[in-house]
UniProtKB/TrEMBL annotation:
Coiled coil: none annotated. It comes from hydrothermal vent metagenome. Residues 35-162 form the Cytochrome P460 domain. This is Putative cytochrome P460. It holds the Pfam family Cytochrome_P460. InterPro entries: Cytochrome_P460, Cytochrome_P460_sp.
Amino acid sequence: MQRSIHFLTLLVLGISTAQAGSSSVPPAPNGIEFPTDYSDWRVISTSHRIDNKTMRVILGNDTAIEAARAGKTNPWPDGAVIGKIVWKQTEAADWKTAIAPGKFVHAEFMFKDSKKWAANGTGWGWARWVGMDQKPFGTDANFSQACITCHAPVKDRDWVFTTPAMLPVMHK
């Protein structure tokens, strides 16, 4: 457990500020701007997809973190933003039985605004930027339909796959 917490801390702290975005990162085709402050967000959870051998750190803005810690995620509150930072897995150089982040794949975000995105039936805005150069994913605003289709199995969980990781309560 201690190694897992240490690994997560190093992983999050190791997210390059170059990846954190700048005014040079173009918006997604649906107009969503890249959240340049995401590298300052806190961890909600992690996931590992065995089908495509990717590992993810799921981050949240303050609104998402507050909801996750309070168990108020179905539905997530308006203003919550969830980010998945995705790498291909690779064997850890100094720990052969562990996996570590390899090639950076993409950063994707879900923005909760039940009024703004009511028309898509989810209440979420979707965006993804690919590669280290953070190229917007998709050719037009309809790209997010692929996100919605993928997330349909969890529509009863407010369209979110992520299960917030439980943390021990620290007593002062």
